[in-house]
Design goal:
Shape: flat
Number of strands: 21
Strand content: 15-25%
Largest sheet: 9 strands, mixed
Distance between the termini: 71 Å
Structural class: alpha/beta
Number of domains: 4
Length: 658
């Protein structure tokens, strides 16, 4: 009887899993193959011209918003003269040029001796076609091989689009968090360029929605590339673009033309995504999904093998089979992917997991009671959130962890040794307990996890165990609330407490870390260490709350900040921008905001090596705000830099102590 029930359960579970997975895959086709890409040789026939940071700098061509379209015309002329076979411009010129540039205005003023001549020249810039647009259109028409992008509802203005060889569709504007797996297939920018370069109409593999999956060659920087400014200045190797496809597009974060791509956690500029799409067509290395029938056969085979195995083997042998089946399927998916066939990686693993879980529960149902006992025991000494995580996944109760995107927070009492001198032990402990209780309450109220107390320091983090999209914002809000609460407490204490807080955001390893007998749920990693370093960095600037550029990017414009410095902390080679967290947005008086702008100007001069000019502004600011820590730090530092001018100054200040 028991064997019959077990057999019926096995057959029922197999069919249930098969139907569930097949039905789910029929209605949705999640893109789950981001880890299957392997790097392969980028085409030597494709080169990219990036509008990079240098091109946008004062030493280059200045702000992109101020660019004349004559810049593009010059670049096209130079590429055409160098023998580029195809030129693709990954940007829209969907509005007419306006006004007159400073250069053109200067030329007009100096080249006309009469008022009438000056008026005639100025009227030209107000005519139907702006001279800058005419110059770009002429360059495109003269080259004869320029392709533009367009959208279903938008394209470049007619004078420019009519001059191009052709224009092809590109993906509509997407959020930068969107992972780009595919581009428009037929009649696309990539397809038209590939066909022109090949001299024939190439076949293409697309989905029912006319999307072509991109077979990425590798991460960013894979293709040969040049700076827009170098091409504009005609300062480049002409042979490097001769007979090639040359794509022009954004190559600076400031242009906001970069997107996530399915290569781990990498982002890529839009123009390089186009390059990968073009190579996919040229190489005919297309990717396509398995059919519904193929998926059904795979799901049934997996459900049958897995459920039969899990129901009749002991728990550890079944677990080993689960791992082997998972690994075998993944290796099979890798092999198929290299041949252009995309096996579903979304549903087979839940299918296997459900099969294993259901089989195990059927045979070992009493383990539910064990989980209740486990939850009851741990609720006495870990947070409620951690208890819930353990209850959902008891196997997590072991050494190890996972990487999550978090914001780490370190708070420390400034000059703790001096503060505690002469205090009675019982008074010291009472005040510290009151201090820690106040800060902990604020952390937990703002959905943070209090990690640990170390002496007079408190460590917390946001984003684990529960994921939070606004973890950086919550950490900054907590820091300000801690400062306000401490001001209230100091009004009641004889011994005043001043704190320093450091905040940084980024990936960290989260989990149970320690020995086999004793471990803690905590966060570790470089980003956690940096938060601790930033807490200590406060003392060099006499500030209270320092956040990193990582956190600055994550919080957007939610808070009032002061850009403090570009530093390299001890033991690290990469510099990082740091900011002082001052208040919530809109909470600072206008005078303070004006002084912050002057401070920012002084920092720019300092980084540019204009120490004397920077010193003058800092000195002026110190008269306005006496005892301002960062200002005093800069004045002292600049005095030393003027006395001993540095070699190869880059604006980065390296700390040699923690």
């Amino acid at each position: 009887m028991k064997k019959q029930k077990k057999l019926i359960f096995t057959a029922t579970l197999t069919m249930s899993l098969f139907i569930l997975a097949t039905t789910a895959s029929f209605f949705t086709t999640p893109r789950s193959w981001k880890f299957l890409y392997d790097e392969h040789q980028a085409s030597a026939d494709i080169a990219i011209v990036y509008i990079d940071d240098f091109s946008l700098s004062e030493e280059g061509l200045g702000r992109w918003q101020d660019w004349s379209r004559e810049y593009y015309a010059t670049v096209i002329n130079n590429l055409s003269s160098a023998g580029a076979k195809v030129i693709g411009i990954d940007m829209l010129f969907d509005s007419k040029s306006q006004g007159i540039s400073e250069t053109a205005l200067g030329t007009t003023l100096t080249s006309n001796s009469t008022a009438q001549g000056l008026a005639d020249d100025l009227v030209t810039y107000l005519g139907e076609n702006h001279p800058d647009d005419i110059a770009l259109a002429n360059a495109i028409e003269s080259a004869g091989n320029v392709f533009l992008v367009k959208l279903p509802t938008k394209e470049s203005i007619s004078i420019i689009s009519d001059s191009a060889k052709d224009a092809g569709y590109t993906n509509a504007a997407l959020p930068q968090s969107e992972t780009i797996y595919a581009v428009t297939g037929l009649d696309s920018f990539a397809k038209k360029i590939a066909d022109y370069f090949a001299g024939t109409t190439l076949p293409i593999e697309t989905t029912e929605e006319n999307q072509m999956y991109i077979n990425y060659t590798g991460g960013t920087g894979t293709y040969d590339y040049f700076s827009f400014y170098d091409i504009y200045s005609n300062n480049f190797d002409k042979n490097a673009v001769k007979d090639k496809i040359v794509l022009i597009g954004g190559g600076s974060i400031s242009l906001q033309d970069h997107y996530m791509v399915p290569l781990g956690d990498l982002s890529m500029y839009g123009v390089e995504i186009q390059a990968n799409a073009i190579q996919t067509i040229l190489d005919q290395s297309f990717l396509k999904n398995t059919s519904t029938t193929q998926n059904a056969i795979i799901f049934f085979a997996l459900a049958l093998i897995a459920t039969t195995t899990f129901m009749y083997l002991d728990i550890w042998a079944a677990l080993a089979i689960l791992i082997l089946l998972s690994l075998a399927y993944y290796l099979g998916a890798e092999t198929a992917f290299r041949k252009g066939l995309i096996l579903d990686l979304t549903y087979p693993y839940p299918l296997l997991a459900l099969s294993y879980t259901s089989s195990t529960l059927y045979r070992y149902f009493t383990e539910i009671q064990d989980r209740k006992a486990l939850k009851s025991a741990f609720s006495h000494y870990v947070s409620k959130e951690v208890v819930e995580e353990i209850a959902k996944n008891p196997t997590a109760l072991k050494l190890g962890g996972e990487q999550k995107n978090i914001t780490a927070f370190f708070a420390d009492i400034a000059n703790f040794t001096g503060w505690s001198e002469g205090a009675k032990p019982e008074e010291l402990v009472t005040q510290l307990n009151e201090y820690f209780s106040a800060l902990s309450e604020i952390v937990m109220r703002n959905q943070g996890t209090v990690d640990k107390f170390e002496g007079d320091a408190i460590m917390a983090f946001w984003g684990a165990p529960l994921a939070l999209e606004n973890h950086a914002e919550l950490a900054c809000k907590t820091a300000l609330e801690c400062r306000y609460r401490l001001e209230e407490l100091n009004n009641t204490w004889d011994r005043k407490i001043n704190i320093r807080i450091g905040i940084n955001s980024g990936p960290a390893v989260i989990g149970n870390i320690g020995s086999r007998d004793r471990f803690d749920y905590t966060a570790i990693g470089d980003n956690v260490n940096l938060a601790a370093r930033l807490e200590s960095i406060n003392k060099f600037y006499a500030t209270q709350i320092i956040i990193s550029e990582n956190t600055r990017r994550a919080i957007g414009n939610s808070f009032e900040l002061r850009r403090v410095d570009l530093i390299r902390v001890k033991g690290k080679s990469e510099p990082i921008e740091i900011f002082e967290l001052l208040a919530e947005k809109g909470k600072l008086p206008e005078k303070t905001l004006a002084l912050l702008k002057e401070f920012d100007q002084a920092v720019d001069l300092y980084r540019a090596g204009s120490f004397a000019e920077a010193k003058n502004i800092f000195a002026k600011l110190l008269k306005e705000v006496d005892h301002d820590g960062p200002t005093q730090t800069y004045l002292t530092r600049i005095e030393n830099l003027i006395a001993t001018p540095p070699k190869n100054w880059n604006g980065i200040w390296t700390f040699t102590e923690k």
